[in-house]
Target: NADH:flavin oxidoreductase / NADH oxidase family protein
Amino acid sequence: MAHLWSPFTLGGKPLPHRLAMAAMTRGRALPDGTPHPDAAIYYGQRAGLGLLIAEGTQPSADGQGYLSTPGIYTDAHVAGWQRVADAVHERKALLFIQLMHVGRMGHPENTPHHRQMLAPSAIAAGVDIFTAEGMKPAPIPREMSSGDIRQTIVDFAAAARRAIDAGADGVEIHAANGYLLHQFLAANANHRDDAYGGDSLRRVRFPLEVAAAVAKVIGPQHVGIRISPGLKIGGIAEGEETPEVYRHLVRQLSRLQLAYLHITHAGDEDHLASLRQDWHGPLVVNRPGRARSDIGEDIAAGVADVVSVGRMALANTDLVERLKTEQPLNEANPATFYGGGAAGYIDYPMMEAAAAQSA
Model:
C-alpha cells in the first residue's frame, strides 16, 4: 500500500497521493437541482482524498433521470457548486464535477419537463427506476435525431463552462455505467444506421465529439472521462467486440491530451493492460468491491497512476489517515445512500469519535 502515498500531478495540478474519491450519486439536491447546502460539508469532509470526483450531475434537463440529482446548467446550480468548490479548495483538494446524461436510464417523472427520455435508439433499458410514486419500469426512450445529438454536445460543453465558472478544477465526462454515452458504444443499445451507429468506429463518434467539444471550451487539462468496458449494467451487454471498440475509443481520446482516463474495471485484465498502453496520460482505475488490502496493487503493478474508491470514502471522511495507520473502517449504510438528510451523509464518525463510541 506504500505506493499509494507518493505525490502525483494530474491536469498540471499536484495531488498529495494516488487515492481519489469516485463519483457517487447521493440524491440530496434541492428540488431545482441546486446542490444541497450540506453538499459543501460532505465534500469538504472528504478533501483529504486529494481528488474528489463529484456525483453525477446533469448537463441539461434532458439529462436527468433520477430524483434529486444536481444539475450544472442554471445560475442557481453554479452558485450551489461554488459553495462546494470553496469548501474543497479550503482544504487544498481538487474538485472535478462528473457530467452525467442518463439517456434511457431514467423516468420522465423525475425530470423538470417530464419529456420522454433520449437515447441512441428506441430500446428500453429493461430496468426499474425509483420515482416519487415508487419503482417504475424505465420507459422506451425516443431515438435521438441529429439535432438532438448536436444539442446534447452543446449542452455538455456549456455545462463544463459553468462548472469552471463555479470554481471546479475540471469535469469528468461520464461515458460508463449504462448511461447515454455508454449506450452509444454498446451494439445492443445502439441500432442506428447513420454516422453514430453501426460498426464500432461509428459508435464511438458521439463520445469522442462530446469530449472534443468539452476540451475545446475549458481546455483538455480540465477534462477527465470515465468508461466501463464490458460492464453489464443498465441493460448494456457488450460482446466480443468490446476490446476493439474501447481500444479505438481510447486511442482517439488520447490525442485530446485530457487530464485523465478513469476506468471502471470489469475483470478483463488483458484488456485493462492494453488500454494502459493505448492511453498516453494519467490513468485512474476503479475496481468495485476491491478489498482494503488490495487498494494499492494496480499502482504497484504499473496498471494505474491513481485509484478511486467509492463506499470507503462515503463512510470514512478520514480514509487516508485510517489506511496509513491501519485503523478500522466505518461500514457504509446502504439505507442512507440515496436521498434523506444528514444521516448517512455528513455524520459518519472520525477515528477519535469512533474509538470513543466503541469504548
User: Anything to note?
Assistant: The first strand starts at residue 8 and ends at 10. The CA atoms of residues 298 and 304 lie 5 Å apart. The chain has one domain: 16-358.
